[in-house]
Amino acid sequence: MSAYFQELDYQITSLGGLSLRRRRDLASGEDIYEIKLNEDFLMSSQFTTSEKALATLGLGELSGGGFDVVVGGLGLGYTAAAALEKQEVQSLVVVDALRPVIEWHEQGMLPLGSTIASDSRCRLVHGDFFAMAREPETGFDPHEPGRRFDAILLDIDHSPRHVLDPENATLYTPQGLKTLSDHLTSGGVFALWSNEPEDLGFTAELQGVFEQARAERVVFYNPLQEREVQQAVYLARKGKGDA
Questions:
Q1: How far is CA 193 from the centre of its chain?
Q2: SS3 letters for 131-166?
Q3: Read out DSSP for 154-223?
Q4: CA separation (Å) from 3 to 29, 40, 108?
Q5: Of 150, 171, 148, 151, which is closest to residue 159 (Cα–Cα)?
Q6: Residue 15 domain-assigned (yes or no)
Q7: Backbone φ and ψ of 60, nearest 5°
Q8: Which element (helix H / strand E) includes 236?
Q9: Tell me: the pLDDT tens digits for 22-70?
Q10: Neighbouring C-beta atoms of residue 70, cutoff 10 Å
Q11: Nearest-5° angle of CA 205, CA 210, CA 216?
Q12: Per the domain annotation, does 24 fall within a domain?
C-alpha cells in the first residue's frame, strides 16, 4: 500500500461491504480516516463540524446535569466524544448496527477509539437503533429495558428523506417520531444530524409531535468542493409534562 493511502480493514456486513481507510492529505499533511459502506461515504475525519454540533447543540438544550444520553450511530466517534466532553453527562449509550465499527474503536484503530472506549460513562452497544426505537418497552439499553433518556442524538442516515435502509424511513413519520419520544424523559431532547439543509416539511412533522422543534444551520468550508457546505441539526424538545 502507498504511504498516502491504506485500507485498514474491510468486512462484509448485512448492509454490504464496509471499509475503513486512511489517507494522507497532501495539503495539510494530516491523516484522514474514512468509513465507506458499499459506495457511500459514511464519514470522514476531514469534516466533523456538524457531527460535533449535534452533541453540543442537542445537549445545550438541557439544563442541570446528570444527563443520560443515547447516540445513534458511532461512526468515527466525533458525536460521542463531544458528548463525553460535557461533565453534565453521567452516562452515554452508543448504538451502532455495524459490529466492525465498534471493534475498530475498542481496538484503538481510530484516533478517538481509546478515549471513547475507556470512558467509564460510555457503553458501546451493537444493535439496530431503528428496531430499538420501535420498542419503548425494551429500548436502547440491554442492561435496563425500558430505560428513558434525557437526550437522543441521531446520526445514521444522510437526512430524513435520504436513508441508508428503506426500513429506517418509518422513524421520520409522525408515528415513528411519537414512538421515539416515548424513550425520552419529560423535557428530554431529540437531536438529528442531516447532511442537507433544513427540510421545512420535516421540521413541521417534528413540531406536530414535540412541544418545541426547530433546525439549526451548520456551515463549514469544504476544500474538496472549494465552497461552503450547509447542513442541519434538528432539535426537538418533549413537553415537561409529557410522560
A1: 7
A2: HHHCCCCCCCCCCCCCCCEEEEEECCCCECCECCCH
A3: E--SSBTTB-SSGGGGGGGSHHHHHHHHTTEEEEEEEEEEESSS--HHHHHHHHHHSSEEEEEEEEEEET
A4: 12, 24, 20
A5: 171
A6: no
A7: -65, -15
A8: strand 227-237
A9: 998 877 778 999 999 888 888 889 888 899 999 999 999 999 999 999 9
A10: 28
A11: 70
A12: no
**Residue 57 belongs to what domain range?**
47-237
Which set of grid coordinates corresponds to residue 123?
457503553
Contacts 24+ apart (CB under 8 A), 83-90: 83/55, 83/59, 83/153, 84/115, 84/116, 84/119, 84/121, 84/122, 86/55, 86/59, 88/59, 88/62, 88/64, 89/59, 89/121, 90/65, 90/66, 90/121
With H, G, I as helix, E, B as strand and everything else as coil, classify residue 7: strand
Q: Residue 23: how many CB atoms within 10 A of its CB?
A: 17
- Separation of alpha carbons 194 and 234, rounded Å: 8
Give per-residue pLDDT as tens, 104-155: 999 999 999 989 999 999 999 999 999 999 999 999 999 999 999 999 999 9
| Residue 243 included in any domain | no
For residue 179, what is its C-alpha cell?
414512538
Question: For residue 213, which of 155, 162, 174 has the smallest C-alpha distance?
Answer: 174
Q: Which residues contact 165 (CB under 8 A, 6 or more apart)?
A: 15, 130
**CATH number of residue 131's parent domain:** 3.40.50.150
Count how many domains the chain has: 1
Residue 169 belongs to some domain of the structure? yes
Q: Indicate yes or no: pTM above 0.70.
A: yes
User: Rounded to 5, what percent of the chain is helix, strand, coil?
Assistant: 25, 35, 35
